[in-house]
């Protein structure tokens, strides 16, 4: 996902397309349909004619399909989410026309209710995208503000997993989360103390005030800042924009 977002550098206009019931648009070969057999009470055995949701290889199969159908120079694809981008309106309009032609040729349908067209700021894969860069989507991170204190390791894993998706937006994430990640270790007893509560609250506040990350300008120099402590290591790749790092 980070590679996809980085590829949006230099773009100012965006269209996001969502495919309708994506897996159901992929037909199964007749000889493979029996592998999806399921039973319904008093109605016998049934099998899918299309790829059902829940198959372990369904995401990889669909991603391969999208990469064959949509050329990388027209749109970026992540399963059923496509983003068409460009530096100006005309470029994106031309790409959109060609993408729709590719989808039509492959008999793939989009869900218009979930699509956005010709935006200069849009939501994509849990992020807000604009010409200025990438930031967290407030509609997603709002869940952190309402997250209850974990009572078990499983609940803590769930919280840390969510936060880790946006970890690059939080300075010193590993250091801040250390008291919590220590609790998830296999032979560590789950004992929630004041230090854990402080770390939990700190992470929640940091997630809600996450910074915007600017797109890299490949023609400008990069600055690499590194740091380490007894609890973690970290590095930041930055550039100078408008006289400010």
From TrEMBL:
Q: Which InterPro entries match?
A: DNA/RNA_pol_sf, Retrovirus_Pol_polyprotein, Rev_trsase/Diguanyl_cyclase, RT_dom, RT_RNaseH_2
A GO term, aspect molecular function: RNA-directed DNA polymerase activity
Q: What class of enzyme is it?
A: transferase
Asked whether the keyword Acetylation is assigned, the reply is: no
Pfam families in UniProt: RT_RNaseH_2, RVT_1
Residue ranges of every copy of the Reverse transcriptase domain listed in the record? 1-129
Sorted alphabetically, which keywords does the UniProt record give?
Answer: Multifunctional enzyme
Q: Which named protein is this?
A: RNA-directed DNA polymerase
Species for this entry: Lygus hesperus
Q: Organism classification, top ranks?
A: Eukaryota, Metazoa, Ecdysozoa, Arthropoda, Hexapoda
